[in-house]
Every structure is written in C-alpha cells, then in structure tokens.
Design brief:
The structure is a single chain. By secondary structure, this protein is an alpha/beta fold. It has one domain (about 1-135): HUPs (Rossmann fold, 3-Layer(aba) Sandwich). Helix content is about 45%, strand content about 25%. The chain has helices at about 15-25, 45-50, 55-75, 85-100, 120-125; strands at about 1-10, 30-40, 80-85, 100-105, 130-135. Helix 1 links the parallel strand 1 and strand 2. The longest helix has 20 residues, at about 55-75.
Length: about 140
C-alpha cells in the first residue's frame, strides 16, 4: 500500500511507538521503507546556559539507543532518525525530505483546546502533503 512511511515516535510513550511500527509493517509494500522519527525539543537558551554543554549530545545518544531497541522489538526493518526542533514542523519536514506517502503518529487524550486529537497530531494533519494515520 505504501512505499515510504514515517512513524513519529515520542519515546516517553514507548508502547504507543511499538504499536505504530507494527501497524506500519502491515501497511508497507515489499521493499518499502519505514522510518521511525523522534524529535527532541529545543532547550530555550536561557535554560541551556545553566545546563551541561554536552546535554544535547547525551540526549541524542540516549534517544538513538531507545529507538534502536524499539526498532529491534518491532520485528520489521526500520530506519531511525532523530531531529531537533518543534515536533510538528520536524515531522512535516522529514516527510518532505524523504518523499513519504504516509505519516503515522500517536495522539494522546487531549484537553478542551484540542478536543479531537492532540496538538502535534493536529498540526501534522492540517499541514501534511501526504496521508496521515493517527492512532490512539
């Protein structure tokens, strides 16, 4: 069905990411690509000044290990990628950069401001140039 799937993963919700990758494995064509993406939020500069200089490197290394474990548990062939910035914009940029034909993202139980889907998922749905699958 799909040749290039982006699976956006929030590592603080590992089980949701694992379920998304398993769904992606069922949807990807033979020889297709599943790319698991995790976005690290930028640390504001006024806070970063008080933190260790190598914090971003450590955050990236930890995320890489966690993504590798999650990808290995999925049983599918999965590429992993880590980006830094605002989650919605980085997910959309990754989809554009790779020519994705599907973005898969989990959505939390939102508050009143985003009644139907979470804010990151809502932004991705509104601005994506490809299909988006939202999982709860």
């Amino acid at each position: 069905m799909y040749k290039n799937i982006i699976v956006a993963v929030d590592l603080s919700h590992g089980e949701a990411g694992k379920a998304l990758v398993q769904k992606a494995a069922a949807l990807v064509d033979q020889g297709g690509v599943i790319r698991m993406l995790h976005v690290l939020e930028d640390v504001p500069s006024y806070i970063a000044a008080e933190l260790p200089r190598d914090l971003n490197d450590r955050r990236q290394a930890e995320a890489k290990v966690e993504l590798g474990v999650l990808a290995g548990e999925s049983g599918a062939t999965v590429e992993t990628e880590i980006r830094t910035g605002a989650a919605a914009s980085q997910i959309l940029q990754c989809a554009d950069d790779t020519g994705a034909d599907l973005i898969m993202i989990a959505s939390h139980r939102p508050g009143l401001s985003d009644y139907f889907i979470g804010s990151t998922a809502a932004r991705v749905v509104r601005h994506a140039q490809c299909s988006v699958l939202i999982s709860r």
